[in-house]
User: Fold this.
Amino acid sequence: MRTLGKNKQSTLVQAQTTPIQLEFEGNELTFLLDQGAAITHLTFASAPHAEILKPQPDYHFESSLLFPFPNRLANGVYEFEGKTYRFDLNDFGLPNALHGLVADKLFTLTSQGSDHSKAWATAQLINTGDQSSFPFPFGLEVTYTLSNQSLSIAFKVTNQGDGNMPFGLGWHPYFNLGQHISNCALKLPVCREIEIDENMIPNGKKSPSTCFDSYRSLVGLTLDTCFEITDIGKENSTFVKLNDIQVLEIWQDENHAYVQVFTPADGNTIAIEPMTCGIDALNTGEGIQVLAPGASMTMRCGVRLV
Assistant:
C-alpha cells in the first residue's frame, strides 16, 4: 500500500497494481489502479460509522468510473457519424451493454502528495482505441482530493485521435449507511424522472419529480431510477440524512446533469451515481459530449459529510 506523508509530493509514471492510499487528519481513502482506479475504502474521521465506502460481496461496478457511457446502452449498439459500433451485452440477462469499458482497466499513478489542507492522487488511463466497440483513442485522468470530511473527484477526458469522439461519464459509488436504510431520508435537486421500459431503457417520457424536493423517508422505497436535473447550478447536490445532525452530501458540477439512485437489497447501502448523460445516451444523444481532436474536458463531483 503506497502512502505519502504531509507536505510531500511525488511524480510517478509507472503502472502499479498495489492499493494507493491517501490520509488526511483521520480521513482515509484507498483505490486500486488495476480495477479502473475504483475506490475501495473511504472513511471520514467523524462519520457516525466506520466507512462511507467499503467493499461489499456481490456488488457490481462498485465505485467504478463509467466511460465512455454510464448506465445502459440498448442492445449494446450505437451509431456515430454514420458508423455503427457494438459493445458486448453484460447487463445480467437484459439485452444491454452496461457501464462502458474502463472498470477493469489498469491505470497509471502519475502524481500523489499532500499539504496542510489536503491529500491527493492522480491516475491516468491512455487508451489507443484498438477496441471495435469504441475505436477512439483517449486519455482519462482522475484526481482524488481528500480533505476534512470531504472527497473531491476531478475527471479530465482528452480526445487523442484524429476524429471527433463522443462520450459520457459517471461514477458508481455504493454508500455505506451504517444502519438500515429505513432510518434515513433522501433529498434530490429539482429534477425529472426518466421513465423506462421493461429493459430499463428510456421510453421517451419524463415526468416532474417532486417526491424528494424535501427530505423523504426511505422506508419501503425501492429505487433504480435515473433523474435529470432541471435547475442546473455550479454544484447540484443529493442529500442523505443519516441522523438528526449528520447528512451525506453527494455533489456534481454543471456538467453532470443526471443522477441515478439505486437501493440494493441488503438494506444498508444506497448508490447515488453522478452522470454526465442519461440512460442509452450514445443513442439518444442526451448529455453526450463530442470532443474534437486534441480537445479536453474536465468534470467534477464529490461527497462530503455536513
User: Anything to note?
Assistant: The CA atoms of residues 191 and 229 lie 4 Å apart.
